Amino acid sequence: MTSGLLAVIDMQRVFADPDSPWAAPRYAEAAAGVRRLLPAFGDRVTFTRFVAPDKPEGAWRAYYEQWPFALQPPDARLWQLTDDFASHARHVLDTTTFGKWTPELARRATSEGRLVLAGVSTDCCVLSTALAAADAGVEVLVVADACAGADDDSHAKALQVMDLYRPLIRVTTVAELPAATR
User: Fold this and answer.
1) What span, in angstroms and rounded, lies between the C-alpha atoms of 145 and 86?
2) Which candidate, 162, 120, 122, 115, places its Cα nearest to that of 137?
3) CB of 178 within 8 A of CB of 2?
4) Most Cβ neighbours (<10 Å): which of 19, 61, 99, 161?
5) Dihedral sign (CA 20, 27, 101, 45)
6) In terms of Cα–Cα distance, which of 28, 20, 31 is closest to 79?
7) Using one digit for the tens of pLDDT, what is the confidence trace for 48-92?
8) 43: CB partners within 8 A, 6+ apart
9) pLDDT above 90 for 123
10) What is the rounded average pLDDT of the residues 105-123?
């Protein structure tokens, strides 16, 4: 069993649907990586969902003016976890922010001593979560082949940026993860 808490970031329909303006082109590859990770973590998995706020405040107003399709309630189809993950999601954390480093995730991750991140989008929600967790002093492992970005270049750049934070953040792969958690 791999040590730490696995946070599966935003594996939702809005990022999986190729017709969505927020589609992650390599969602299917990231999903395959996540599926390979799940058995190693057992019940130590948190799935997150990005959802729109009831009423955007501050800079989020301009954001949702750019993306009005996303102003839907949390139970809308676009915010649902994709079918391959909905049945595995015993613990789900909803946030209206890119970063998922909330007090709830912090409690779960600090009790495990390590946070392993996978999901979408590498260059947005994964990056925002990794940096905040590292700042809080939690060891973060980002599983590159279980993540997908807005495009390949953005994915690669985000991984490079996170790798600059060594040893607080380490980029790894599904195959390398067991050795990285020793």
Assistant:
1) 21
2) 115
3) yes
4) 99
5) positive
6) 20
7) 999 999 999 999 999 999 999 999 999 999 999 999 999 989 999
8) 90, 91
9) yes
10) 91
